[in-house]
């Protein structure tokens, strides 16, 4: 992430941290580590990270994700730079260059609510339901919505 030069990086961990933060913070001094004392839902962690971010656009990604060094993310950021969009998703590809579904569409199927994964048809699609929370969020728009509901611990219902 640092090599992409996108700005600040915030890493939110806790309460049980499976690795030693001190050597990491010395190795990567530009990363801000937020260490939680109490258990928090994914939604709460994202709310905290977006609130703490200093930029107006915030990329939400998991620590084990590999972000391509192609122009993909740069194109998304350029596209949404002036847009009034809550969340935009980049085209994500797997190791065999197949497009990975990064959008979820809510649908009622046989009377039950289901989330259907969908591949974006273009770079930087707007969505309210990014897969696995991953996308580029407008900080102002996100905060206006109130963020994710901290009372919902099941990510399916967020």
Automatic annotation (TrEMBL):
This is Glycosyltransferase 2-like domain-containing protein. It comes from marine sediment metagenome. The lineage of its organism: unclassified sequences, metagenomes, ecological metagenomes.
């Amino acid at each position: 992430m640092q090599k992409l030069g996108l700005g600040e990086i915030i890493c939110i961990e806790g309460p049980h941290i499976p690795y030693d933060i001190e050597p990491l913070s010395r190795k990567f001094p530009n990363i801000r580590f937020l260490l939680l004392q109490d258990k928090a839902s994914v939604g709460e962690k994202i709310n905290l990270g977006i609130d703490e971010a200093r930029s107006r656009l915030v990329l939400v990604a998991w620590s084990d994700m590999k972000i391509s060094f192609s122009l993909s993310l740069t194109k998304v950021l350029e596209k949404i730079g002036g847009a009034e969009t809550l969340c935009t998703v980049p085209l994500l590809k797997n190791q065999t260059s197949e497009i990975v579904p990064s959008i979820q569409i809510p649908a009622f199927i046989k009377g039950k609510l289901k989330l259907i994964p969908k591949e974006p048809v273009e770079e930087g699609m707007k969505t309210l339901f990014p897969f696995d929370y991953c996308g580029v969020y407008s900080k102002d728009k996100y905060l206006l919505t109130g963020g994710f509901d901290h009372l919902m611990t099941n990510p399916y219902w967020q």
